Amino acid sequence: MPDDANTIRIGNGLQRRTFISGISSVTVPNGVPVVINSDGQLGVMTSSAHYKEAIQPMAKSSEALLALRPVTFRYKKELDPAAIPQCGLVAEEVAKVDPDLVARDEKGKPYTVRYEAVNAMLLNEFLKEHRKVEELEKAMAKLQATIEKVSAQVAAEHSAPRVVLDGRLSAGGHRAVGASQGERTPLAARGSDGALPSKGFFLVRNVPV
User: Is residue 23 in a domain?
Assistant: First the structure.
């Protein structure tokens, strides 16, 4: 085929299954996932900035995830006779929400979901929510500090002694009452003739408010 320099091709396009030994159950700790496009080309998704352009924050683009519908399902028997339960997304539904999140077959129809892109969008949404939580925690901390300050002020005011003068409260250490009540100490000085004023006040100690 033309433009096949430095290219390895296996099969003629008629095969529908491929078996390669030495891969299954072999751990590759420093490896990366291998992907395939609709033409059957194998490769990896590179992440280095060296291969990218127009890099910008994802911002609100990841909010498309909120319209997706995760599902559970089983593959048809001809694909999986064991009918193992699966979970994921439906490519056709995803394509309606965001066409860039699906890979298409040779006919241009949605074939599978680009889960690696979905994962990146999930991370963006997580970070956005995490920042909101941090802001709420800071606001709650300020509110708690204000509540504690006000509570301390109220407690101090309630613990301070009061003085009642003719039925009115004022700052001081005792309650002053009229001459007809309790054990008293005169507060008003006698006049020049030795008589008390017509309306005097007396100090009664340790009278609760």
Answer: no
β-bridge mates for residue 176, sequence order: 203
**And the tokens for 91?**
């490519």
Number of domains in the chain: 1
- Bigger pLDDT: 130 or 37? 130
The answer to whether 169 and 162 have CB atoms below 8 angstroms apart is yes
| Residue 198 resides in a domain | yes
Q: Does pTM surpass 0.85?
A: no
Rounded Cα distance between 75 and 83, Å, is: 6
- What element of type H or E holds 43? strand 42-43
Using only C-alpha atoms, what is the Rg of the chain? 41
Backbone dihedral region of 194: left (phi > 0), alpha (psi from -120 to 50 degrees) or beta? left
C-alpha pair distances (Å), 129 with each of 79, 125, 152, 159, 185: 39, 6, 34, 44, 68
